[in-house]
Write a structure and sequence with these properties.
The structure holds two protein chains of two kinds. By secondary structure, chain A is mainly α. Chain A has one domain. Chain A is 78% helix and 0% strand. By secondary structure, chain B is of the alpha/beta class. Chain B folds into two domains: 220 residues, Rossmann fold (3-Layer(aba) Sandwich), CATH 3.40.50; 65 residues, 2-Layer Sandwich (Alpha-Beta Plaits), CATH 3.30.70. Helices cover 37% and strands 24% of the residues of chain B. In chain B, helix 3 runs parallel beside helix 5. The longest helix of chain B is centred in the middle third of the chain and has 16 residues. Chain B is elongated. The chains are: A mainly alpha, B alpha/beta. The interface between A and B is medium-sized, with 26 and 38 residues.
């Protein structure tokens, strides 16, 4: 087999391993996938009436449902990548990684397995979320192309965050740390245009919210699924995603290569 | 590479490794001929695990060279990885998979193919008596079963060179004997094996040659028989009722090591009846009262005492100060 064939084969094996882990650790998977659904119900039925009224539409709660779904898609991504960090840290703190390192396997495959596995999990979770949102009465004026574009942007952004989670998992000294650090990303979704318009925020916070990556992604996805005109957000969203993905990828691979050049316990 | 003079087995030359100012390995050279077993014997913190990590491409050495079956660990790490198998001190198994899945994972990564992989997995499950537990999660496995699975995973690709880092530490006596038998079988199948251990009897049982490592340096090297010749054959411990007879006995027997707190004097002796009689006669003539005595067969401590002049117990601290390491 050629090197490329080896890399593909090894990555596929590692992906299968990651998916098996997700099935064997169902409490984690269900929690990470279930949380966005709980938040969707909470935000639409508890806060939705009042928040919807603030949108200036006579539709109220139902208008807020349309507004908040992109925010919850980002929550889904932020939630799922906690699992990525945990799984990566579990590998790195256990003995199995040493076995992989002493085998003639593609060095990239260990990490790509986690990345692809997480991506599948994210997409499945977003699929469930969209299904539930339609069940609650989401009305979308967008055609299939718009939906595809929205999913495309989400995949690109998820890829960036997953690599970031991999790097955080590699950097973590323990599994506990690895499960906590991605919480910051979770918080960033709330400090963006994901749940409420940034225009309603106080100045300092508004500026922060407008210039952090979650806002342009939420705005772009919202415009795409609502079938309204797409603004400059799309370019900002793509630029943020690509830049983050590259930086996180380089950081992760560097950590992976550097790791273990330290004194054994 | 010329096939005429193809280096084989394990060759390490003047390997040095420090972590900060802590010297872990100081010019360690060793060779294991193809198809033989070398035991790396030493206490905790001697540098055994670090050496294994360097030999198995997990850790780069600061200086020195290592070649495994003709492949250099620095310039051709993947060549090395293709021929070695490593079982570390901490189990390298995937806890979320079953035993069979763990083996299948390695078979897939070794590119054994669908049929070949399945056959090899079944073979190993059988050989390591794991067939009944094959489809159970690892959380139900005992320590011995885990170790066996760990070693089975190492053997999936039929490596020519195997590293075993303290393969029997933490195992009960029965599992330990099973592990010994597995290692013997591998050796007789012509696999080159380097194993680390803290136990002289283990090294004695399994190895063709023994290298004794202490504080990052090789302090003795040879066949088990050669090493045992250097140890007079264990020691006799004389227990005294008070300090006075202990002092007189220590003066009488110049070669002895005294422990004033426990009122014990340790005398080298080969355990033969003659040498024991001689010792007791000597004490009797000097009218020194011995409370009681005990006879000890040679162990790692004796090897250490014989080759370094100090005891393992006095230096088994894993985290020695750099000063301590430098003084030696």
């Amino acid at each position: 087999m050629t090197t490329l064939a080896h890399t593909l084969s090894d990555s596929r094996v590692m992906l299968r391993r990651d998916l098996k882990h997700q099935l064997r650790y169902p409490s984690l998977t269900v929690m990470l996938v279930g949380l966005p659904i709980v938040l969707l119900l909470l935000f639409v039925y508890v806060f939705g009436g009042q928040l919807g009224a603030g949108l200036g539409s006579h539709l109220g709660r139902s208008a807020y449902l349309n507004y908040v779904v992109p925010g919850l898609m980002l929550i889904t991504v932020a939630s799922a990548i906690q699992g990525t960090s945990i799984m990566v840290a579990m590998d790195m703190t256990g003995g199995i990684i040493d076995r992989f390192r002493t085998m003639a396997i593609s060095r990239a495959s260990v990490l790509t397995g986690h990345v692809l596995g997480s991506m599948i999990q994210v997409l499945a979770a977003i699929g469930v979320l969209i299904g539930v949102a339609f069940g609650l009465g989401l009305h979308s004026a967008a055609g299939p192309l718009h939906w595809l574009a929205a999913i495309g942007i989400l995949i690109l952004f998820a890829l960036a965050l997953i690599w970031l989670a991999v790097a955080l998992g590699l950097a973590a000294k323990s599994v506990e740390t690895a499960s906590n650090t991605p919480m910051v990303l979770f918080l960033l979704v709330f400090l963006s245009s994901g749940f409420v318009s940034t225009a309603t925020m106080p100045t300092g916070l508004r500026q922060f919210a407008e210039y952090q990556p979650f806002s342009p992604v939420a705005d772009t996805v919202r415009e795409l699924i609502n079938g309204t005109a797409i603004g400059d957000h799309a370019i900002a969203a793509a630029a943020w995603s690509i830049a983050l993905a590259v930086v996180a990828y380089l950081w992760a691979t560097r950590l992976y290569d550097r790791r273990r050049a330290v004194e054994p316990k | 590479m010329t096939s005429q003079h193809r280096p084989s087995g394990i060759v390490a030359q003047e390997v040095c490794k420090s972590f900060g100012s802590h010297v872990v390995l100081d010019k360690v050279s060793l060779g294991v001929e193809e198809g033989t077993v070398l035991a790396l014997l030493g206490p905790n913190g001697a540098g055994k695990t670090t050496m294994v990590r360097i030999l198995s491409t997990l850790l780069p050495a600061d200086s020195g060279s290592v070649s495994i079956a003709g492949h250099d660990v620095v310039t051709d790490p993947n060549g090395v990885r293709a021929v070695i198998g490593v079982t570390g001190q901490f189990s390298a198994v995937d806890n979320l998979l079953t035993g069979a899945e763990n083996l299948q994972l390695i078979a897939d990564l070794r590119h054994l193919g669908r049929e070949g992989g399945r056959r090899r997995v079944a073979e190993l499950l059988e050989q390591f008596e794991l067939t009944d537990a094959a489809h159970k999660p690892l959380s139900t496995y005992s320590g011995g079963m885990r170790r066996r699975l760990d070693l089975a995973m190492t053997l999936v690709g039929q490596p020519r060179v195997i590293f075993l880092d303290e393969p029997t530490t933490g195992l009960d006596p029965r599992s330990r004997r099973t592990m010994w038998q597995i290692i013997r079988d591998l050796a007789s199948a012509g696999v080159t094996i380097l194993l680390t251990t803290q136990y002289l009897d283990e090294a004695d049982q399994l190895a063709n040659r023994i290298t004794v490592l202490d504080q990052g340096r090789i302090v003795a090297e040879g066949t088990p028989a050669e090493l045992k010749n250097r140890i007079p054959g264990g020691h006799v411990r004389l227990h005294f009722a008070s300090l006075d007879p202990l002092r007189s006995a220590a003066q009488l027997l110049q070669t002895a090591a005294a422990d004033r707190d426990q009122l014990v004097l340790q005398v080298s002796a080969d355990g033969s009846v003659d040498s024991l009689r001689e010792l007791l006669d000597e004490l009797h003539e000097a009218r020194i009262d011995v409370d009681h005595l005990s006879i000890h067969t040679p162990d790692l401590d004796d090897v250490f005492f014989a080759v370094t002049g100090s005891h393992v117990s006095a230096q088994s601290d894993q985290y020695r100060t750099p000063e301590g390491a430098a003084n030696r």
